[in-house]
Design a protein that fits this description.
By secondary structure, this protein is mainly α. The protein is about 70% helix and about 0% strand.
Length: about 180
């Protein structure tokens, strides 16, 4: 059922069912770990006067994991900053086509970004780039970040297809209680 009949695209439902658990469970676990590590490190540093060796390395890696696994879901739910001036000035048909153009540009940028992250990951592995204290190799994390950006690119491609097919692309914020 296209927009005129008020339906939502079944492809977007499938994308939501894939992206949401990845973001909530893997990204959420990384975020909880980051929070617990930060609290523990602060406690050890100030209460016991004994900082945890390598805590900053682990925090960097966990923060990268949070970003990696949340970008696609954030884009899908409308959690990113957007300026929606055209909605009030123009009609829904013009807004639909400007959304398509902007999302095509976004897919192109994410493709370049993902490709460069893969190249950086390969170079990091070849040159032995690693974190300062624990020498955690950076290569796999560049690749993981490339996968996260590519997943967001896939989300944008599906949204473009939905726009072209005449479906409404809504970015509604959901909660765990809905599950």
């Amino acid at each position: 059922m296209p927009v005129s009949q008020g339906g939502s695209d079944p492809l977007l439902t499938i994308v939501d069912r894939v992206v949401r658990p990845i973001s909530l469970y893997i990204g959420g676990a990384a975020l909880l770990s980051l929070g617990m590590l930060t609290i523990t490190a602060v406690g050890f540093r100030y209460a016991l006067n004994s900082p945890i060796f390598g805590a900053s390395d682990l925090k960097q890696i966990l923060l990268l994991a949070v970003v990696t696994f949340s970008v696609a879901h954030s884009g899908r739910t409308g959690g990113q900053v957007a300026v929606e001036i055209l909605d009030s000035v123009s009609g829904p048909e013009i807004t639909r086509w400007t959304d398509i153009v902007v999302k095509i540009i976004g897919v192109a940028m994410l493709t370049i970004l993902s490709w460069q992250l893969v190249i950086n990951g390969i170079n990091a592995a070849d040159y032995g780039e690693a974190s300062g204290s624990l020498t955690i190799p950076f290569g796999p994390f560049f690749i993981a970040l490339a996968c996260g950006m590519a997943l967001y690119g896939i989300v944008l491609i599906v949204e473009i297809c939905s726009h072209i097919r005449g479906y409404s692309v809504r970015h509604h914020q959901d909660s765990i209680e809905e599950e």
